[in-house]
Design goal:
Layout: H1 20-23, E1 27-31, H2 35-47, E2 52-56, H3 59-68, E3 73-77, H4 85-94, E4 103-107, H5 112-121, E5 125-128, E6 131-132, H6 133-145, E7 157-168, E8 171-181, E9 184-188, E10 198-204, E11 210-221, E12 233-238, H7 243-264, E13 270-271
Parallel strand pairs: 1-2, 1-3, 3-4, 4-5, 6-13
Antiparallel strand pairs: 7-8, 7-10, 8-9, 9-12, 10-11, 11-12
Helix pairs in contact: 3-4, 4-5
């Protein structure tokens, strides 16, 4: 079931599964000596909805941050000078204050010996550089939801500030959307449609074509009656997506998340996998 309210009944614009808003409040510590990677992975994670991202470019700084402000998840590069990722992982897992924090290892190349040692020490998993969006999203979600009642899938999402065409009963309006996911979209509208309304949403693609997706309004927020944390509007859940629709939507979201990053990076550190 999709839920668009937080635990204090304040609505959230995230059109994802039931536990999305829990995941996005988590604090992530990213440790890597490559400052270019740190910059781009931090930007990407924030666009994916993880607002508390703390970068560290060396092991000493990382261990200080772990004690001062323990994160919920650590992304840790294996190959670093002075203090490598395996040594840092050993410190994390050997300290009672930090031993329960899940650690995802980052690596450029396959190193079976390091993998085995990290497994022995208790790492959660691995991501290979250049980091692929879907693998990053899925690994983080599995890590965050481990041991909870969360579903085992997290829908990729991206901030969205473009107009979309919304058609209802053969009448089309151009409206701004603020959030897009594989599951649906949140659209600003002063007088939102009633819940249960069937609509078609047309997303503008780069080649000036459109992706037309059928959906149902499953939540609406009016101007009054609730704390004004998001603009009035409606959450539309996509229905009956074909495999082609799903592929195009995932590729579109991945482009929203990474287009400028991929064009700007001198070396490939972030990679689209759709």
């Amino acid at each position: 079931m999709t839920d668009f309210k937080t635990t204090d009944n304040t609505p959230t614009v995230q059109v994802n599964d039931t536990n999305t808003m829990i995941n996005r409040t988590k604090k992530l510590l990213v440790v890597d000596d490559d400052k270019t990677f740190l910059i781009y992975i931090s930007i990407l994670l924030q666009r994916m909805g993880f607002k508390k991202v703390i970068p560290a470019d060396n092991g000493v700084e990382a261990l200080k941050l772990l004690r001062l402000a323990p994160p919920d998840v650590v992304l840790l590069d294996i190959n670093m000078p002075l203090m490598d990722g395996v040594t840092i992982l050993r410190h994390i897992k050997g300290d009672t204050h930090t031993s329960n924090i899940p650690v995802i290892m980052l690596t450029m190349v396959s190193d079976r010996k390091s993998y085995e040692e990290c497994d022995r020490l208790g790492s959660f998993g691995y991501l290979t550089k250049p980091v692929k969006i879907a693998e990053l999203n899925n690994t983080l979600y599995r890590c965050i939801s481990a041991g909870s009642e969360c579903k085992n899938r997290q829908f990729l999402r991206a901030p969205f500030n473009k107009k979309v065409a919304v058609t209802r009963n053969d009448k089309t309006e151009e409206l701004f959307a603020v959030d897009l996911s594989q599951r649906g979209i949140y659209i600003r509208k002063k007088n939102p449609f009633p819940e249960g309304t069937e609509v078609t949403v047309s997303l503008p693609l780069r080649d000036e074509s459109t992706l037309n997706l059928s959906g149902t309004v499953i939540y609406k927020k009016d101007i009054s009656g609730e704390v004004f944390k998001i603009a009035p509007g409606m959450a539309v859940e996509f229905r009956q997506l074909t495999s082609n629709d799903s592929s195009m939507l995932m590729a579109y979201i991945a482009e929203l998340l990474t287009k400028d990053i991929i064009e700007e990076q001198d070396e490939l550190v972030i990679k689209k996998d759709y």
